[in-house]
TrEMBL record:
One of its GO terms (molecular function) is DNA binding. It comes from Nitrobacter hamburgensis (strain DSM 10229 / NCIMB 13809 / X14). It holds the Pfam family DEDD_Tnp_IS110. This is Transposase, IS111A/IS1328/IS1533. Signal peptide: none annotated. Keywords: Plasmid. GO terms for biological process: DNA transposition. The lineage of its organism: Bacteria, Pseudomonadati, Pseudomonadota, Alphaproteobacteria, Hyphomicrobiales.
Length: 159
């Protein structure tokens, strides 16, 4: 029987913490380890996890690392959802957060079907979004610089 293996990823700039939940409800949930967040290491990890033939379904929280990991996993032929952190169900009083616990929790919730994915933009949409955000930041910084300069001139009697 070919079960789905649900893989929870806690993604950071330099590392990815990985946990797997076996397909059946109540199945084993294991923390696999922490791996470098580099495409070659991710490809090796995916190959290792899929070695025995299970279908892999990945998930991770949206964040500053973007959608490159999702695109890589999809290109490798696996399902991958990206979840907004605000849409992840949390238990009351669950304040201790570690990479390991986050990865295990994501794998469990993904297996239970309790995660809501967000829309993943393609490369063109993401590039346009980045450009618009950069332009908005530049306009905001320019306005602040202008205000500082006008204040400086005013304090020194130059109007």
């Amino acid at each position: 029987m070919n079960f789905i293996t649900y893989v929870g990823l806690d993604v950071h700039k330099a590392t990815v913490s990985v946990a797997i939940a076996q397909g059946q409800r109540g199945g084993e949930v294991l923390h696999v380890g922490v791996f470098p967040n580099r495409p070659d290491h991710i490809a090796k990890l995916v190959e290792r996890l899929g070695r025995n033939g299970p279908q892999l379904s990945f998930c991770y929280e949206a964040g500053p690392c973007g959608y490159g990991l999702q695109r890589q996993l999809t290109e490798l032929g696996h399902d991958c959802i990206v979840v907004a952190p605000s849409l992840i169900p949390m238990k009351a009083g669950d304040r201790v957060k570690t990479d390991r616990r986050d990865a295990v929790m994501l794998a469990k919730l993904h297996r239970a079907g309790e995660l809501t994915s967000v829309w993943v933009p393609d490369d063109a949409h993401e590039a346009m979004r980045d450009l618009i955000r950069a332009q908005a930041t530049a306009v905001r910084v320019l306005g602040k610089a202008r205000q500082h300069l006008q204040g400086f001139f005013l304090r020194h009697g130059r109007i």
